[in-house]
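Hi! If you just cloned this repository, the fastest way to understand the data is to look at a raw example. We've pasted two of them here, unedited. The first protein comes first, obviously.
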Amino acid sequence: MNELETPEDNDLPERPSKTQIKREMLELLALGKRVVELSPDRVKQLPLSEKLEEAVLLAQKTNSREGKRRQIHYVGKLMRDAQAQAIMDQIETWEKGSVADTAYMHTLERDRERLLNDDQALTEWLNKYPDTDVQAFRAMIRAARQEHTKNAALLPGQAPQKKHYRALFQAIKAANSGPDDSDSQ
């Protein structure tokens, strides 16, 4: 042992390095930026102090580039005292929820395209959803197909009609979210 080293020195817990402290502050700054990008309604749902919430809302209203940058840095500084993990968890929950919602909507769109392009798809649909009003559903599909044919003949610049196309989507969505359906979402 050195004369400078004492046994008590080895028992002290190590402080985080400057690099670690800087990394944590940059993570809080990034989290602050994510919070500023949220809608004001979502910001109000987060567990933020009053001071932090006001700073976030002010950053959202700030138009100048430099002013916004400085306000975001101030939000990052205030994030040091906030419940960062709870805020991060809530934002991730919202993002995962929107990803799941998007995937669900894409599934519905694929079902609609299948029904419009393939007559056999209707039989499969009726087997999967036997409570569907067959006559009304066939009429919707027929109308959407006619609408698609008319839209294909439109000149460039003319607005296509999508009334029946959308109505079919809503009918598919209603059938998917029915009480007896265990496959939805």
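Ok, and the second one:
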Amino acid sequence: MTFQELNIIPPILKALSKEGYTSPTPIQEQSIPGVLAGRDLLGCAQTGTGKTAAFSLPIIQLLSEQSSSISTGRKIRSLILTPTRELALQIDENIKAYSQFTNIRCTAIVGGVSQKAQERALHQGADILIATPGRLLDLMNQKRVDLQFVKILVLDEADRMLDMGFIHDVKRIITKMPAKKQTLFFSATMPPEIDKMVKSLLVNPVKVEITPVSSTVDRIEQSVYLLEMGNKQNQLNLLLEDKSIVSALVFTRTKRGADRVTKDLAKINVSAQAIHGNKSQNDRQNALRNFKSGATRVLVATDIAARGIDIDELSHVINFNLPNIPETYVHRIGRTGRAGLSGTAISFCEVDELPFLKDIEKLIGKTIPEVKDHPYPMKRIPQSFKSGQPSKSSNSKPGNSRPAGSRPESSSRPASSKAAASTKPASTRSEQPKPKLQTKAKANPPRKPKSEWFKKESKVSR
């Protein structure tokens, strides 16, 4: 299929040709006709499948066809809400490219930078506004944004907005828009919690699901290193000695972790920059620009900051920390293997992350191959995580179990059932000598006078 067959107007086709687009991706094929027909849309597709063009192209076309009816200045007629600054700026860049031969104007407003330039852009007017919820609410409260003319609402990366706690902000923003509008709801994953929001916002939507939520891109080669505690940085340094790893996006769980990994890589002369919420917007954009251009070999990021990182030729994704939400793993590794290329996803896992690994494998429906040829193997893998992969350490656990030491004692004294019963509840080391005390009953010839012996017996019987 071609974009012409999707009934895209000539100015947009010209822009697509200039940008090197040849044919639509599956999500674009299935989404664009429904959106052009004015239908609400529920789109579920992994990152890197072309979601941005799937909603941007029909929006540009619909607004271009309606532009003649706007005679009182430029009004915001489409709002695109995204969870992160990077993603908002990426969408803004794409829409400007797609609409370059139309009269459509778009602008992005995000936090982390001065709002002065954004105020000027809003004053000049915009047909399409791309925004993060926090900054948009700020400007709405200052009466600088008017959403009463919005005809098309897009919630992009909706699952992440929910994860990040933006649900209430999004609801407040929606109340400021007309009740009658077209809503496009895009998400890489569809957890159950999102259903309530979908039902409240969408009316008889077209549902487009390109790949199952639990699946990962087949082109991506996945592997995991089971590491002894405290050796992740050593293993990362060792991996990066391989010059075939041209570019690597490394995910950490925390901002401090991202900074620490970046500093440690600098010590071995690996060019790396960190990108996370504590960095200024300018620093984040510079880091992203350097990574895309190849000036920086490694970009170390937290999950939130990584949304909007769109790099076609990213060779490796490395999970320095495994995510505790299995869907996040799908998001992460989807950053590589884009635009039809292959990719490699490598994960580091310490013993306390084994439950996360198990959840991820359950979600994606496959066991991630373990790399065993490395200098930092996990010394002891809990029995519950050995299913399906025999390990040398599997024989060590039974020998160390405490009950094994107690069984011979109980079986060697079948006659003294009361004594056995009394020693079972008390399994502490302090009570172990008690069976030896009972052996004094064998030494019946008393060393003390009989009178004292009988007193002792009476005390016991009481």
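That's it. A detail worth noticing about the second one: Residues 51-66 form the longest helix (16 residues).
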